[in-house]
Structures are given as structure tokens and as C-alpha cells.
């Protein structure tokens, strides 16, 4: 039989397992983001201790990601001047609808819950804004009206 038709092992035909991509931007975190990282690490460590061999590699990969995020975390407070920025909750009117957007770190982001990473286009448009500002967005002038800006309370978030 030709060597071309012989399989050395089942492992050689599996898709390669890559590390989880780490965002290139600084790892800014709110107080809640720091807690989230610690919770994920604790959960993964417990899962690794209880897991069987096939699942351990994927869990260890995830653990490496979160340990790196813990190491690179930069706790960041909201701007002191009361403007919109990282760690703030901004109430806006966009397309006739009122929304409250929290500007948070990459790992805390949850767009369906209006928690946007600080690098997201809408969050980026809001940074530096103050109440009563009218901002351009998505190619439209006066697309966003800023109604209120408040710092995210580290105890509630």
C-alpha cells in the first residue's frame, strides 16, 4: 500500500487550534471589567480541574487568553471633566430613539445590551461629547444628540 493512503494518526487531520486573538488596542477596563476577568479565570481553572482530557486543551487556551488580559489590564476611570469617554454612560437620541450607551473595554462589550467597546464607531463618535452636543455620525450631520453623561458607578456595574 502506498504511503499516501496511510494515516499516521487521527490528530494530523484535525483543524489546527489557534490562540484566541488579543485586541491590539490598550486593554482598558472598568472596575466591572477587572471583576469579569477574575471571574472568567476562576471559572476556567475550576473547569480544567474537573474536565476530561479532550476538553482540557481548549480550556487551557481560553485560560491563557484571560490570564493575558489580566496581566495587560489598565484600570481606567471616567473623564473627570464630565465628558463622554471610557467608563461613562451616555444617553443619546439617535434616529429619533433614546438610548443609553455604556462605553467599556473590549472584553466587557455587549452591543445588544448597549455596552460598546471604546473603539466601536458609535462609542468613538461619542468620546469627548458633553450634554447638549449634536454630533455627526455615519456620514450624517446632526445624527446624534447627547442628552446626558454620567460616570459608570463601579459598585453597580
From TrEMBL:
Chain ranges of the Transcription elongation factor GreA/GreB C-terminal domain: 82-150
Record-linked InterPro entries: GreA/GreB_C_sf, Tscrpt_elong_fac_GreA/B_C
Domain of life: Bacteria
Pfam families for the chain: GreA_GreB
Keyword Flavoprotein in record: no
GO biological process, alphabetically ordered: regulation of DNA-templated transcription elongation
Protein name: Nucleoside diphosphate kinase
Organism per entry: Sphingomonas taxi
